[in-house]
Design brief:
With 239 residues, this protein is an alpha/beta fold. Helix content is 50%, strand content 15%. It is globular. The termini are far apart.
């Protein structure tokens, strides 16, 4: 039984978490399938649209499996390694979130570059209530997305945030009834841009600290491309 459905289009990949009866809970099979997806995108870089089938994006990790994990399992960073790999994908990634994005599901959404939500979307990290912590990226991604205060409300206070709050705090870009169609429209805009410019921009933005020299080097590469010349010539001729 598949846990992930993958569609490759000319200018993007569409990946759907496909365990709707389990609210797309993230289990070992899904982790493996998503690693395969990442390997495919790394070999053939394209933007990614990630969503969930049914009423929810992903309502967390599979608790049956999680209950059996040991200290050694935690030290291997099973979910964290995957989500970090998603975050490192070379071109923009968009999560189209409906319903629950909780626990590991929320952390997978946080790992994407951009998020679009339906009005029913709910984000949260209830892990401390299960005797564990959100250890697959929330501690270092969520504060940069929504600020330290809101992050602590979610990670320590057990707060869940709805779509309107997610929009207000910057966690999501937009709210749409048809979140997948809205994500495709966003990716249509992305696809019209230079892939190399997007790739270098993402690399520089995600690099830690101040790095003006990296900006200069990336810009130097782009300035000498034929794509830059053609795009600017087209802009000037249209004007």
């Amino acid at each position: 039984m598949r846990s992930v459905a993958v569609t490759e289009l000319p200018d993007r990949f569409v990946v759907t978490l496909d365990r709707p009866a389990q609210r797309n809970a993230i289990n070992a099979q899904m982790i493996g399938a998503l690693h395969d997806v990442c390997a495919t995108i790394e070999r053939n870089p394209k933007p990614l649209l990630l969503t969930g089938r049914g009423d929810d994006f992903a309502a967390g990790a599979d608790i049956d499996e999680l209950r059996m994990r040991t200290r050694d399992d935690a030290l291997t960073g099973i979910n964290r390694n995957l989500f970090d790999r998603v975050a490192r994908l070379p071109l923009p990634t968009v999560a189209a979130v409906n319903g629950y994005a909780l626990g590991g599901g929320a952390e997978l959404a946080y790992a994407c570059d951009l998020r679009i939500a339906t009005p029913t979307a709910v984000f949260g990290n209830p892990e401390p209530g299960l005797g564990i912590m959100a250890a697959a990226g929330a501690s270092y991604r969520l504060p940069s997305l929504v600020g330290m205060s809101i992050a602590k409300q979610i990670l320590l206070g057990g707060r869940t945030i709805d779509a309107e709050t997610a929009l207000r705090t910057g966690l999501v870009l937009d709210i749409a009834e048809d979140h997948v169609a809205a994500a495709h429209r966003l990716l249509d805009r992305i696809a019209r841009q230079s892939r190399l410019a997007l790739r270098l921009t993402k690399t520089v933005v995600d690099a830690p600290g101040a790095h003006p020299w990296a900006d200069d080097l990336a810009q130097a590469v782009l300035f000498d491309t034929e794509d830059k010349h053609q795009r600017m010539t087209a802009f000037l001729e249209k004007r």
